[in-house]
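Shipment paperwork, digital attachment
Item: protein structure file
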Amino acid sequence: MSSVGIPNMYNSNASTSADDQASGLDVLGFLRRRKSFVIVLAALGTGIGYMMFQRQVPIFRSIALVQVIHQKANPKIGMMMTERDLSDAVFEITSPSLIIPAYEKQRLDELVMLRGLSADSAASQIAGMLTVKPGQNSKNVIEIAIQAARADEIPLIVNAIAEEYVARQIENYKDARVELDATLMRQKELLHAELKEKETEYNVFRDTSGLMSDGKNPHRERQQSYLAKLSSLSLDETSIKAELTTLEAALKEGGSREALLMVIGKMNPNSGPGALTNNSRSMEERMVPLFLEQKELEAKLGKDHPRVKAIERRIEFTRELLQKLAIPTETGDVVPVTDFISIYLQSLRQQIQTIVTERGDLETQASEAERLARALANDENEDRSRKNEIERLSELFHDASSHVTETKINAEYGGVKAQVLTPARQGNLIYPTLTRFLGMGALLGGFLGMVIGYVVEIADRSFRKPEDLIREFGVPILGHIPFMTAKQLTLPKYTNPMDKSAVSIHSPRSRPAEAYRSVRTAICFSPSGSLHRVLQITSPSAGDGKSTLALNLAISLAMSGKRTILMESDFRRPKVHKLSAVSNKLGVVDVLRGTTELTDAIQNTAIESLFVLPCGTRPKDPAELLSRPEYEQLLEVLRQKYDYVIVDSPPMLAVTDPASIAPRVDAVIVAMRLNRHTRGQGLRTTEALREIGATLCGIVINGVEGTEGYGYGYGSYNYSYYRYSGRYYGKKYDYSYGSKGKAKGDYFEEEPVESTDANTPH
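Attachment content:
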């Protein structure tokens, strides 16, 4: 039969929880469980680190600070100097060219660490110990340091290197200044000599050249004037031809003489209308304004207005005068206007012929001038080249003179400031450092401890989370009973005769009592709580606290107002009568054998609603007695009389007695204690109960140890890991179920039972 789930704070959505919460490493829980590995190996690593520290050769470090400042130095000097921005300081300071002079001047060969070495070997060794880097807060400061085992000698080497570097910087500036002055003077003299030579050559060239005094080509000038005249003639010819073409086209089309005269007057103001009399020209010019005035008056005043009529009469009169107009000739005859137009056209043709003749002469002269100009083209190019060269040399000479003057002025105010800001002192110990070795040893040891702990963690198959049990056994967890030592359960005086493990009576506000009440709540308020009235309490093996659970669960149910009876069914080692402080003279065995009545066997307790049915006379055939029909009938009678029947039975894996009881009760509660055997024993127990058709109500975990800072009761509880302390359990109670002799532990023997704590196995 499949187990019936009980809803509580531990098993909600238990079926999906097993799938959703994949088993993984709980880091905090892992560290709590395996912290001993980390602590021990970290301590061991610290000790090894200290031993390694004692074996190291000490290394000391000495530092000198050098400042180099170029004061208003000429940029050209700066370009010629090394270490201008101190970017090459590392290479110069570590070079043999600087170390060897410092080694020889300061007599460093007398030092112990350099004694017996040649200059080159000593320079190589010093360079290997040197470190050079710019200062942290200034670009003009250099840090020179040496690391070695001789704390008293390394400052001498550092100071020698620093002083030599300062002297080298000052000398570099002086050398650069002298070299720059000499270079600029040589450049100035060479440019001056070359400029004089070029000027002399140019003067000789001008004397032998056919160019003008200003260097221009005379033939080129004449050619330009001829070309200008040709351009003007071309424009005149184009204008006359256009006028001639226009007049000839007008004559062919039969245009009026007044229009031709007006055209002639507009095309050429000096001809045409100039041949007319002054009056005729004035009238002709007035015609167009009269027509325009007429149109404006008609638009403004209308055609019948007197002013419009007056302008029409003026136009008619002017037209009559033009018809009578004639042109006088040189002989005094009158020439018609038509003959004047012919004469004017003839004059235009004559002008065109004259322009053609003149243009031919000008083209001939321009060609000749161009030929002569080309002959002097080489002289022009050479003259231009010589002038450019002289101008370039003049500029260079002027610049060189300015640079010489500027360099002398800057040199007076410039310079380099180099000094040792902080000389090297006694070397400081930089290696080894105790904290580094101890810390590294502790770190490596702790890491190794975590690795070993992780391996142990993987090999450990014990349960660590409630979800693990639910997933493994397929039944819900009804509660977790905290671990309490015997000292915690010791009271000055009990007001109730029950065993001190009955914490629900003696310590109702304690965490274990609250845990038992939570089990009661889970049972009473489950969907099947009304059906599960006869409950069997068992465990996989001895020492799991099943009897204590049965007692406290019965007490909790009775204190909630439920009529509850605690029934002994562990006939081999009965403990219920001793835990509940009742008489064991009559009990279940006597009722089953018919030697006594049930009412005589049931015992009252100090709790009003709690009753106890002890074992009575201990039988020699407990398994057969529990298999009889009378036992099932007894359970049915108790079901009718009481709200809850709690049956305390032997461990499931010890004997077969619980298997005879389980099918006859409503549900079975399994008490477990988490240890390395829980997984295997729990699986065997649950499988055995399912095989016989028992209904598994749930599991109660005994002996849970919470960490400091977590309260059980009404607060939270730490379920990240469980611990089982086996030192409180073991051989104190020996369950020798099935033995046949009279030896100690035989179920025929009646032994006194000592009072125990809440976790004492029963």
